[in-house]
Design brief:
The protein is built from six helices and twelve strands. The chain is globular and about 50 Å long.
């Protein structure tokens, strides 16, 4: 089977989209049209949600120019997801960034990027399916959504990188249509913190990979689990429908009891 694959920098990261042609329509011109629509959607999400763009809707909210009640339906959806995930993770996932200059870190701004990436990739996958492409792979900085089969007609595979040598793959997994996300400090630095102790860096684990019902769910739980440190993998173990693979600061991996189901086709 033929297909198309492109990587573009969107939302400050390389996003790779691969779409495989299947028997019958869509043909190559539809694949190109689908790719363009997918990337155009991601660019629009960045314009709306980037805290680094002064003109974005989230920046206007943080400056107090508009209230959440006046915000778009998409913004309200993301805020609601943030609140729901905060409750589900006992506060280990929080889109409010504390201001260390205020008492007990109160105040601060809203940064929904921890939700938006997985949310946008889930929506991109839905857009690709709506346009008639069943075999696809979308990877945004380790948040991955996939459907159907790869160019060889086999299950899509994902490599988990060695956080101490990112050119080495330590485990190959086959998510089989589920979402997969990796959180860690080894590529983007200390961008995840523990909301309960925001001043302390997370040092005991360096990465955690989570497989969940979809890429958004996997991403949210991977972020929360990483913020929990060594307790994160136990949190994933107790979540129905989720499996995880964590690597600690000593290079020791811990797997949830059902993770091995995804290590073979």
């Amino acid at each position: 089977m033929g297909g198309m694959k492109e990587t573009r920098i969107v939302m400050g990261m390389p996003i790779e989209i691969e779409i495989i042609e299947h028997v019958g329509p869509p043909r190559s011109y539809m694949l190109k049209e689908t790719l363009e629509a997918a990337f155009a959607y991601l660019v629009s999400v960045d314009e709306q949600f980037s805290v680094y763009k002064e003109t974005s809707e989230i920046s206007r909210i943080n400056r107090g120019e508009i209230t959440l009640a006046e915000a778009s339906a998409e913004m309200k959806e993301v805020f609601a997801l943030g609140e729901q995930t905060k409750q589900e993770t006992n506060g280990y996932f929080d889109i409010r960034r504390p201001d260390p200059s205020t008492p007990l870190g109160t105040g601060g701004s809203i940064d929904p990027s921890g939700i938006v990436k997985g949310w946008a990739i889930k929506n991109t996958a839905a857009l690709i399916r709506t346009m008639g492409c069943e075999n696809y792979f979308v990877n945004a900085g380790g948040d991955i959504a996939m459907g159907g089969k790869d160019a060889k007609g086999e299950e899509w595979s994902v490599g988990i990188r060695n956080p101490f040598n990112i050119h080495e793959i330590v485990k190959v997994v086959y998510p089989k249509g589920k979402g997969i996300a990796t959180s860690g400090s080894y590529i983007r630095g200390d961008h995840i913190y523990n909301p309960h102790q925001p001043e302390q860096k997370i040092k005991d684990i360096v990465s955690i990979t989570v497989i969940g019902p979809d890429v958004l769910a996997a991403d949210l739980m991977a972020t929360a689990a990483f913020a929990m440190g060594k307790q994160g993998i136990a949190f994933i173990e107790n979540l129905p429908g989720f499996e995880g693979y964590s690597i600690d600061a000593n290079g020791i991996a811990t797997l949830t009891s059902g993770f091995d189901a995804y290590t073979s086709r």
